[in-house]
């Protein structure tokens, strides 16, 4: 068993359809047989346990390694049926017992096991991987494995400093720095399962979106497939996610994952940082992560290092962005992380995903208050941000408009620097852009007149008011005769009307609007069946009538 399991482990990335799996699967004992092997007591030499081969294994292997290794391969390649059969036999709890050293020692009260262990480090990794596959076997199994404080504590102990140092010193299979990496990654895949499943559930933003966090964990995860195979599990995960997060906090998982970063090479940080990015999206976990030093400047410098893997840097950017969006209380810690120079460099990065996420992060850093305004000016970031409005990448343009709008929202400190953005924003309103990009551009123009009138002349002379009127005119037909298909679309019309209403507070803008040939369109929109559109149109008509 061990020999075959060791060979198959070399093909860990093989897909179900691969030639390797087609050849190997018939050689692996059936799930029920493997499950029976796990139930034998290795302390009773009278039992015909194929795993009980004292004297034939080196001291670097565990007596259960081969069995769990083949079990992992069968679950990986056998599909949902293999998982369901295994879960029905109660094997997941046996695997939990193995991890807790119950099967070999506690279960039968044996004081000696012929100086052997049940699982070596590589056997532990195979066992965790098998449990991860079992999570998709049904709501009951999922809850038995993950929604139990003592189980999360057990998994966490496997990646605590003491155990990691032992694995690092182990010179057999599964030891050394590579073994530490595999162990940490296996535990993270297991603990991240609920977050991956929910992120891929129908109705939620796709995990393949350019701004999703922890994308690396989604690849090949049972959690990515479960939402398509069993809606009951997804429902159970949704119902229990609050309880699960509470358990993670109580056990201290966020801090343990943070400490794992110190045990791994920079090139191996992809999965741990991806898990951090997923946890940051949940307030209780985010608070504990920040309190445990997530935003330590030395740690951030490491994650943003130019030699770091791309996925690590992207997730680090999302961590900053999500924390900034969640609560202004994190602003002080983000400032202490000293990341602005890194964000400035990422605005000029050759990778469009880097540029887009840097824009998004800066936008969220200006979302709740003007806390970072002076820092943006001091680091000369605003000008580069404006340039991103004409970026060749559409997502970067969208988030650049978002960031500029927030940089103008709270006060007029940055208005002089933002003056140069007006032609860019006006131009975007007339281009073939996504509706969200146009809405962001219209909103940014609104904020440029929100706090003072110092930019009104530029707003008019650079065609921004005219562009808003033209956009409103183009959208008016569908607004007056909305179809069922239009109702779900995010139209920039409302934001454009809102922006124009804000501009009407200033005489120069008001005069231009009143004299425009497109102004009558506003009057017709008062008859729109959508109340918010009619309300904004009426507000504009009322304000324009003022002297």
UniProtKB/TrEMBL annotation:
Gene3D superfamilies: Leucine-rich Repeat Variant (1.25.10.10). InterPro entries: ARM-like (IPR011989), ARM-type_fold (IPR016024), Armadillo (IPR000225). It holds the Pfam family Arm. The keyword Kinase applies. One of its GO terms (molecular function) is protein serine/threonine kinase activity. It catalyses: L-seryl-[protein] + ATP = O-phospho-L-seryl-[protein] + ADP + H(+); L-threonyl-[protein] + ATP = O-phospho-L-threonyl-[protein] + ADP + H(+). Keywords: ATP-binding, Kinase, Nucleotide-binding, Repeat, Serine/threonine-protein kinase, Transferase. The keyword ATP-binding applies. This is non-specific serine/threonine protein kinase. It comes from Glycine soja (Wild soybean).
